[in-house]
Each structure stands twice: as structure tokens, then as C-alpha cells.
# Entry
Amino acid sequence: MYDPRIEIVEGDITKLAVDAIVNAANASLLGGGGVDGAIHRAAGPELLEECRKLGGCPVGEARLTKGYRLPARYVIHAVGPIWQGGNNNEDALLASAYRSSLELAVQHGVRSIAFPAISTGAYGFPMERAIPIALDTVQTFLERDQTLQRVIMVCFGRAAYELYLHFYNQRT
# Structure
């Protein structure tokens, strides 16, 4: 099912002028590699200072901070699961990380939000399994809440972009 509020783009999430970007964070919220490190570098040291005050975040949940030097007003730090073979509740935890991010966004008046492919980098969640979970979770949320006007799935690299498009087009 097609929803015009969902967009698939290839690019750098730290450059998007949206209300909120989602950070594929680790449970400490204190920065790391991949998109997490890129967001922390682009936002500046103030982001780390605010994250320190949050005391971490459990897997499957999300926390909100200001965007500081980013073009986004907020950063929503979503902690996805580390892939352990698929039999340790990874699918449900990944869906929960997306859903928690969307709920936080709506609570803070966000109208546009950009997501990376949570857990698919260093955490090893297979893209072919993660993308349908992400799309299904976002679509289900949008069906019951009209607050968000724009949900951008940001792909790092052409292969991820083409895979996202493949799964998205299967739904249209």
C-alpha cells in the first residue's frame, strides 16, 4: 500500500532540513561509529552533553534531544537490536525502535522525520529482513496517526537505496 508521506532517498541524514532525524544509537547514547558517529560529529559537542544526562536507553526504545548544529530541530536516538541470528526477539525490538521514534516525534509536534536503516550497520541486522519491518511499522503508524506529513527513509549507498525501493515498490 502506497503512502505519499513515505519517501526513499539516498544521501546523508545529517544534511536533511527536517524536524527530526533518527539516530541509530547504542544503548549508552554516547556516540559510536556509522550514522551515530556522523550525527554526533555534525551536531557538535552539545549533543553528547545532553545525551550524558539521559542515562542511556534500552533496546527497542528511543530518546529525544535537540539537534544543535544539525539542520534538524531534534535528534531521536533509537536503539535497535544487535543481530544474533534472528531468534532473540530482534524483529520485535527493531519494530519497537521505529515505533518509539514515531511516538516521540508526534509527542513533540514533529511533522517531518528522517530514518536511517536502524541496526543494519555495525549491529549486523540483515537489510533484507530489516527493511520490510521498518516499512511495515511506519505504514501501520501512519494509518492511525495523521500528524507526520513526511517520513524519509535515508539510505547510505546505492545498494541500500535500491533494496529499499524494491521492498517499497512491492507494497504499491
